[in-house]
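Q: Sequence in, structure out?
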Amino acid sequence: MSNYRRVYIPGGVYFFTVVTFERIPIFINEERIEVLRQAFRKVMAARPFLIDAMVVLPEHLHCIWRMPEGDADYSTRWREIKKAASRRINATTNNRNERMVWQRRYWEHAIGDEKDWRKHVDYIHYNPVKHGLVNSPGAWRWSSFGRAVKNGWYEESWGADVPSTISGMECE
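A: Exactly. Output:
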C-alpha cells in the first residue's frame, strides 16, 4: 500500500488527471461524452465547484477545479462523478462490484500560483495535439479551449507549436 497523501486545501485550485480502466478508449463519441457531462452536472448541482479548464480524450481527461471557500472535498466529488458515469457506460461488474470504466485512483496537483495555473491550463488545451488527435487545440471538440478563446486567454491560432510553458511537462 502506498504512503501517498492527498493535499486538501479548502477553497483550493487543483489540476487532475483521471484515466480509464487499462486506458481503454471509452470517451470516443458524443453519446459517451454526454454521459460524462451529465455526471459532472449531477455532482456539481449537489456539491458545487467550478471548472477552469478541461479536456476529455478517449482514455483520460484533465481538468482544473476551483473548490468553494471552506471546502476541499474533491475526493467525494470524483467518486460520485465516476460512479454516475460508470453506471451508464458499463453495467457489468467485477468480483469487487466495480464497473471497469475508470482506474481506481487519479492524480491531483494543488495549483500554487498564477504561473502554475497557466502552465496547467496550457497543458490541458494542448493535450489533444500532444496525443496526435488533432493539429490544433481548436479542432478538438471535447475541450474548454473555445471558451478560453472567448475569454481572451488565447488567440484561436494558439498551439500551432508546442507552447514553451509546457515544454517537458508530463501529467499523464
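The radius of gyration is 16 Å.
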